[in-house]
Structure to design on (209 residues):
């Protein structure tokens, strides 16, 4: 009772001395929840049901109904960027399944994880994986070979055995670097956006002299 009375008295003194708005300027957890990154992502991301009904993702069944896969926060989004970018550099035809599996295991945002995989698509695959192959060949000090890259079962069965070592090494290097860079960049940008948004609210509040 004595502690409660002292607490109420302190709040009353601060309220009467500095005014109500002075108390309102103290940042709270609820003030941080609604900010630019979440609104921006929700505006452009597809609806959940479109991802759940995708033919390649039906293999996961009821796992797609976990609420953790659809949250948009600093942790789930940064993990999604890490997994999506990592899988985009892995030379396998089932990148989307790999990204979705990682998102399910580590509670990353499923939509972003799957979408970012499409950085490697039929248009970008030839230059992207040629660059990855050159990185691996340079690391292993091997001569370059003239290879046409097509991420398909036929290509894997015919030409993958010729360059699998430099391609695999280069893929792991680029995938890891992209994942780490994407993860920490998103966390930094998210934090900066929260700080900017909070400062704008502070500036818009009318504080009595």
């Amino acid at each position: 009772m004595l502690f409660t009375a002292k607490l109420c008295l302190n709040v009353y003194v601060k309220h009467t001395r500095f005014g109500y708005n002075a108390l309102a300027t103290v940042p709270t957890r609820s003030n941080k929840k609604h900010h630019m990154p979440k609104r921006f992502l929700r505006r452009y991301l597809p609806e959940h049901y479109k991802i759940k009904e995708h033919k390649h993702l039906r293999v996961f069944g009821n796992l797609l109904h976990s609420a953790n896969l659809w949250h948009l926060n600093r942790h789930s989004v940064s993990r999604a960027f890490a997994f999506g970018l990592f899988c985009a550099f892995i030379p396998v035809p089932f990148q989307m399944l790999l990204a979705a599996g990682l998102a399910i295991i580590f509670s990353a945002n499923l939509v972003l994880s799957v979408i970012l995989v499409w950085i490697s698509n039929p248009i970008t695959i030839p230059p992207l994986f040629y660059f990855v192959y050159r990185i691996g060949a340079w690391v292993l000090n091997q001569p370059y070979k003239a290879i046409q890259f097509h991420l398909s079962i036929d290509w894997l069965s015919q030409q993958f055995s010729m360059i699998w070592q430099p391609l695999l090494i280069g893929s792991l290097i680029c995938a890891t670097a992209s994942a780490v860079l994407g993860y920490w960049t998103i966390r930094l940008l998210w934090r900066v956006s929260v700080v900017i948004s909070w400062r704008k609210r502070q500036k818009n509040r009318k504080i009595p002299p």
About this structure: DSSP finds ten helices and no strands in the chain.
